[in-house]
């Protein structure tokens, strides 16, 4: 059925901007099942991989923990993830490499201005899924407080729904934060931002809590 693959490929190529569905990734380092999307930040093919793993008992409109994994080329200064799919008024993750460590800084912005440290979400780095080599660094972390939040002023509740797909957003800067040892360092504006639809339904893991507890112990 080769011709069918060709038709699919041509159809995909005719829809620039439409990304393929998230891939399922079985992580040998953590044992978790992630859904994975590769997001370009340079026309030459460089991109950041964003992966999500969630509990199989997560329910829509109820907060749940999530594990996030980023695979980042070494030329990236900081990489961002917006859980609500746009910059303002949702939990932001900003990650960068500092010597042999990776720093994850939870942030929040009420507009298109420099995001400030945010106490509503908390990341715990999973050492077994955090490493680097001559081309990339990778970080894996548990997040509490990334899948539900309250919009200031209106008080509206927002959720990342575990039962389907959610629009996420990313941002890329070539510049390291000025005080890279500090999670609260100021950061420079991104050079690129992008959106994609991330599949959460296939990111579900049985025994998520037990596995994560073992990984962070
Ligand atoms: C110093 C830090 C930052 C500054 C000064 C900044 C500023 C801005 C500005 C001015 C825009 C509007 C650009 C336009 O309209 O073309 C924008 C858009 C955007 N920014 Fe940031 N940003 C910062 C950090 C971040 C971070 C950490 C993220 C995390 C993912 C992010 C995600 C986005 C996204 C997705 C957009 C597109 C518009 C939207 O969906 O809201 N930004 N930013
Ligand atoms: C370097 O590390 C990244 C992230 O863990 C991995 O995806 C990549 O395959 C590694 N490259 C080599 C040559 O080992």
From TrEMBL:
Keywords: Signal. Gene3D superfamilies: Cellobiose dehydrogenase, cytochrome domain. CDD domains: CDH_like_cytochrome. It holds the Pfam family CDH-cyt. The keyword Signal applies. Residues 78-173 form the DOMON domain. Residues 1-21 form the signal peptide. It comes from the Eukaryota. PANTHER family: CELLOBIOSE DEHYDROGENASE CYTOCHROME DOMAIN-CONTAINING PROTEIN (PTHR47797:SF5), DEHYDROGENASE, PUTATIVE (AFU_ORTHOLOGUE AFUA_8G05805)-RELATED (PTHR47797). This is DOMON domain-containing protein.
